[in-house]
């Protein structure tokens, strides 16, 4: 019997389900014709060209009269309107031209109204208000509405028509009857829905209603409970705010209170729909077609409301949590609370409903007529001021706009004293600029009218205009019987909120004007018109390719995707570039006293979010994480049954019991893999359970399980039992997307992928190389929309698409062919604001999107890469690193199963000359390349890093000079310092300024050779024979100091100073007290480039960054000695200075001559006589007898 009852109930539920589905289907079967049976009186128009072109002839497929409606040729704003007699639900419209004529409408607007006076423009799903019309007189164009209209009056406003004819129109409207339960609230009334019990506690709520308001403030719904629960739906400044709290007794600010705001301009006296769906803490809040999903705060999952729910206002102050607000003033219809029709109960005077104040059940319609000023340059309304019986001059009006400035009013006052009264109401967010009737200004008005337009004309809406207490009938203005106007739209407010929905991504702030919107991307980590593009690279590998060295970087693993940037450390000192992500517990931690019942648990919080970590690990070639684990009488596994006593948790929250780098799922440690456990009866050292410390340290390298999110230790509760552990940072290397490539060998081949999901914004980037003159890189098609990127000619890349506004083509032309078998970079972006195309470093091409055009790119076919669905114009060559909206497309995987396409792309090195720098050698790898820097003066992954090093040589001065600080010793040294100094070396660098060589004395004299200008990275040989020293006093020359601070990076060889070879001494006499080396010094052969005739050289590889001259000055300052100020000493100093000045002038002349011929550097030196006629610097060096002996010993040295 019970079984039969269950089957019966199941059958009944099934039948009810089918019946409900049938009812739902019949409800949505709303496509019946609504115009064909209308009477003639239901049609109205702005004008008609003749009786046979009257509006009632505008029925679809009818040939009565002249075959349709046509307005007068002088009609400035033609329209035709339909009265459906009752509010109907309209789901589609159709248009047709005038029968047998050349008159048809090619574009139009659709307006709707409940009263036939206040109109609202219908906008499609993406905000487009314009409908495409006909292309001939007899074809029918059907437009299905993205959301239905519930209204009585419809108006068609032609925008464009056949240029060879005139406006001609026949129409049909499809829909069904609309049932409505309406209540009218006067701002002091409300409806109370009372529960059958003291309180109502619900875990699920569904509340729906439609409203239209006469004011920008008002409470539509309120309920509260004793424990602090409340729900409030409130209209505030024309937007709808939902306040919801569950089980939080403290209702103060910031304590459980949640406010979510949706909608805009909701006080426009037109209907708006609201839907609130709650299940536990999860809430869906929908206003019109915009939905916000959020999770409410509070301690509970249920909403507990005491006694009643109030609709239309809060009648009395209540319990804590009651917020006193204005009551709602307007109409509410079809109000349902959890399936209960509240207005129907109120209308039938059911006891559950209590009415407060005057609530009526028909919607009163205010007679408010708005006018839209369409143009910021030419719109105006000119009215004649009527005399006031009270004297003076008074103007009143209401307005709303998005523009920050505009001329509202201008008039010339009489010379005698006048009273000017201006009253305005700010109906929406606006900055007001009021300049002292025409409203707006005719651009062609003569100067004597007194109308000046020092700012932009007003662009927005106005209503309730009165001059000297006399209301202005705008219908008379429209009919030409009152005043004058230009670029106005009557009986409607055409303002549109362009920040709803908010197209600014990644938290960008939206602002707007009348015609467009703007995104403020400050602080988001993104840029672009809609904050779509990340300003950070996607990986450490990308930073390396950009030439960066090790350090902390912000990376954005999914590029322009929803995940934000995170900071990581990029270690680029090895061939592999490591990405290091730290967590909150990197120090060793000792654990004692834990059991399996009460284990020790540590959760790790990383510097990146779990979603960012997943993206980082997925995009890396390999990841690893070290676990340092030491133990004493603490086991990892139970020795009896093998059950784990300690474990770690992976990124997905799964328990893992393998330790070290062993295979997942195997309860073993690294020592078992390496076969070196201390007791071979166990798979882990700790399981030997000895009294001495053991170690089971290992590296986890199964990246799908990384990073470690938690560690649990459960066997440290015995005597002398303890564990010591440390979890290292997550370390990953490689970027799987960087060299993910495919090679296309046949023009008919392509790769196909799922349809692009890029309705509102799309960015795609890739590298290509080819020898073909043209080919399609990628293409995705829809019914009408499409997107395509192609090489249209050897030097032109084009990006084309269509979102419904007509095809858009952007092209970038290169001055050199792009089919040169070198890698070239392409990035194309399309958003609701603009489109752009970037090729290599060529100038960016971009195009703004139309402000009122279609926004969504609707595609339905597969994405084709390397070709098209028609197998024509296919691409021949290589494509790599294809990324779409931050997601890398796996070309290699798809290429493995596609004929005519192979995974990978050979020739990474041969196709680009900029991968390895400074004579570094590019070495091919299976998926990329590495740089061999052994033949370069530089190091690092790209051979761009120099070592911070220097060599200092201390001269052996006479003992008397070093010890005796008398004037005699000083004079001896001054005599020796005036001897000729010979220096020679060769160098190669791309840096300037740079310090090449400096020699200094204890008395602050110095010789400095600096490079002040450098043009080409070629070897230069310098021979200097100088017979003077520069006295620097307390400081070195400013130019020398600047060069010293920069140091030197490059190759420096053949270093010779008089009889001393400093570099040779540094290499052959390691540990000598005369030589101090800062940094790393090693041998190399890069100096061979300096002298091709040199054989068997002694070479040294050394990237030099000389210490700053300030350090040298500090050392010299320590050696400085004060001397007697006697007359002979002063005379000697003056003589030395005069001699030095003369020699400096001679040296400057030589430097100028050298600069004119060599353009390579500036030297504080003077060349010796007899060398100026040498053909080369080396020849001059060899021709100088004073340097022959020195060069024989030191010519083959290289100081780098």
Description:
This is Contactin associated protein-like 5a. The structure is a single chain. This protein has 1200 residues and is mainly beta. The chain has 15 helices and 74 strands. The strands form 15 sheets. Strands 37, 38, 39, 40, 42, 45, 46, 48 and 49 form a 9-stranded antiparallel beta sheet that branches. Strands 1, 2, 3, 4, 5, 6, 7 and 8 form an 8-stranded antiparallel beta sheet that branches. It is globular, with a radius of gyration of 43 Å. The N terminus and C terminus are likely disordered.
Please write out the topology.
Blueprint: H1 2-28, E1 32-33, E2 43-45, E3 80-96, E4 105-113, E5 120-121, E6 130-132, E7 141-161, E8 170-177, E9 182-186, E10 190-202, E11 204-213, E12 218-224, E13 230-236, E14 239-245, E15 258-262, E16 272-279, E17 282-287, E18 290-295, E19 303-311, E20 329-337, E21 340-341, H2 342-347, E22 353-356, E23 359-360, E24 370-373, E25 380-382, E26 393-400, E27 420-426, E28 438-440, E29 460-467, E30 470-471, H3 474-478, E31 484-486, E32 488-490, E33 509-512, E34 517-520, E35 526-527, E36 533-534, H4 540-545, E37 551-555, E38 566-571, E39 578-581, E40 589-591, E41 600-603, H5 610-619, E42 622-632, E43 646-649, E44 655-656, H6 670-674, E45 694-695, E46 698-700, E47 710-713, E48 722-727, E49 730-733, E50 741-744, E51 751-753, E52 762-769, E53 775-781, E54 786-793, E55 796-802, E56 808-813, E57 824-830, E58 834-839, E59 845-848, E60 863-865, E61 877-884, E62 887-888, H7 891-895, E63 901-903, E64 921-925, E65 928-932, E66 950-953, H8 959-963, H9 967-977, E67 981-988, E68 994-1000, E69 1005-1011, E70 1020-1026, E71 1030-1031, ...
Parallel strand pairs: 26-27
Antiparallel strand pairs: 1-8, 2-3, 3-7, 3-8, 4-5, 4-6, 4-7, 9-20, 9-23, 10-19, 10-22, 11-16, 11-20, 12-13, 12-19, 13-14, 14-15, 16-17, 17-18, 20-21, 24-29, 24-32, 25-28, 25-31, 26-29, 29-30, 33-34, 35-36, 37-38, 38-39, 39-49, 40-48, 41-47, 42-45, 42-46, 42-48, 42-49, 43-44, 43-47, 50-61, ...
